Model the fold of this input.
Amino acid sequence: MFIVDCDCHNYWCSATVLEPYMDGVFKDMFVRGEKTGPSGAFPHAHRPWFHPEGFARHDINPVEEDDNYRLMKEKHLDKKGIDAAILTGDEAIEASTLANPYYANALCKAYNDYLIDYWLKKDDRFWGSIVVAPQDPQLAAAEIRRLGGHPRIVQVLVSHGAQRPYGDPFYHPIYEACAEMGLPFAMHLGGQGGVNSAPIGAGPSTFFWETHAILPQSAMTHVASLIAQGVFEKWPELKVIIIECGVAWVPSVLWRLDANYRALRKETPWLKRLPSEYFRSNIRLSTQPLEQPANVQHLWATLEAMDGENTLLFASDYPHWDYDDVDNLHIPPAWRAKVLGLNALDVYKRIVPPAAMLAS
Amino acid sequence: MFIVDCDCHNYWCSATVLEPYMDGVFKDMFVRGEKTGPSGAFPHAHRPWFHPEGFARHDINPVEEDDNYRLMKEKHLDKKGIDAAILTGDEAIEASTLANPYYANALCKAYNDYLIDYWLKKDDRFWGSIVVAPQDPQLAAAEIRRLGGHPRIVQVLVSHGAQRPYGDPFYHPIYEACAEMGLPFAMHLGGQGGVNSAPIGAGPSTFFWETHAILPQSAMTHVASLIAQGVFEKWPELKVIIIECGVAWVPSVLWRLDANYRALRKETPWLKRLPSEYFRSNIRLSTQPLEQPANVQHLWATLEAMDGENTLLFASDYPHWDYDDVDNLHIPPAWRAKVLGLNALDVYKRIVPPAAMLAS
Done:
């Protein structure tokens, strides 16, 4: 079985690793300007909800920069037999919270160059996500065209926190560039605060555990928007990947979208199919954190209702606090080959495993 | 079988019906001041998403005020054998969108007096919801105490659109008053715009059908907030009823709440039980609009995961466009007596049916 981890976080100890990849006024701002914290902090607006334990697993304690790879290799890649890991960075997507889109873009470019120069060279199992700042879709599109042809870059990544629902025409230059480069568009949980819209409805929640439970709301909005605005009619081959937003909410949203569309479709005459059909053909979700009900049959009925056998991609979320173990993933056993690897290979076309590995 | 319709809308043709129940400066503002539309419009901020067909069923066309009751009796109560109808008004809950809390409170008071004086006298099957303006929880509490002892008032009603998540301590005076009067606190879909927080995460969606599909997000926020803030530890007997927000999203939210609470419970040391346990004991949802997947077994597994047999209350949403017919409610047949009536009787204690009707 070929295992693809679709959400593997390549940490840094200090954001100063980006300095060599910056120049001009933005390097000056990055080195000398105000930051979110002390030296080494990445500049971004911050959520008002603070994780009460910190995000990293307690057994992952890098001291020097190279420890980040060493620990990942030892505690995750080698130990769990990961054959391909999609690197999703960590703080880089938080650039989406910055008011200055030019600075945000410069930070993303620096991260992408660092990713290619430092991380992708370290291990043949690594595949990269280029991060873009969606505040300026034209600049984001230029960055996608600048690096999207790199043979080990497999997706374009943003935070699921956003200024507008991602179907908005404002963002269409990003999809044009993704389609041109043959790359999926992925959003990862994050990017709360700053210029981004409130991530949940009805006002700011209070506690971290409470908030984290309902952050998938932003992903629901994006799913509805991408479908309703006809993004998948304009770019039928575009795949959108939703990372770390849970999965069990999907059927409830699709059922309402289908019912409402059937009754009121005159609002969006460009659509040719039911919302749930666009979902199945164009949207994928990473599994972590997979919901854990008392009765696994309730989860499996939900996964079946969203065609999880074909729409789910395994992700570990290494090295975060709520890491999902590939050996302990409670999906229907018959789905394992697809969810652990084959579905990812169908989306990330640049990952071509040895034929022998697929047969095993 | 005793059938309780937990969301039956008592319409008016013109909001001028409230004039006799107002006085002083607010009557002057109501009669002479700016409104949302022409004469007869109820003053409230409005959503930027407009229903492309209007909300009412096309076969319900009242011309004079008394037509509203006549049509409801003919096309719904008598025809469908409704034994008790919880009246939920219509535009009154939109007072929650107004910046001026004193005016909002005056409008709610006028509506409540009109409800008792005009509607509740018309039919022995009617039971009332007093509407309050949550912008000023102290005024709202006073209104609950003013009318909450009326023998045919069975709940306190607000919009699910809100300035803050309803668990916020800001709102606790409302729950204190509800507990004192022995009334459930109910929220009904609505109240988008004005001073209320954005109803969904990640920015404003675009189309009505798209938006309506994801409006349950605000209800998710309220469920998480009411539980996390310990409202059900402070008022263990308080029942919260969520109306017209769909139901299939509930398990996905409870699974995440339980998982996060288990890991990070130190944030909320006042809680003694799992979030899903507070849900089962204190929160109820009305069924309409019940989700309609292609495979009803997917829905039933979802309903089972939320203990729907005990947490669901039948609602028709008469006379709205997406009316649910009691004769065509796709719930497990064995649950019908509970969902159609017994669960409501357990929550609305003032409704006491003849013993003979319960036996049949």
About this structure: Chain A has a mean pLDDT of 96. Chain A touches chain B through 75 residues (CB under 8 Å).
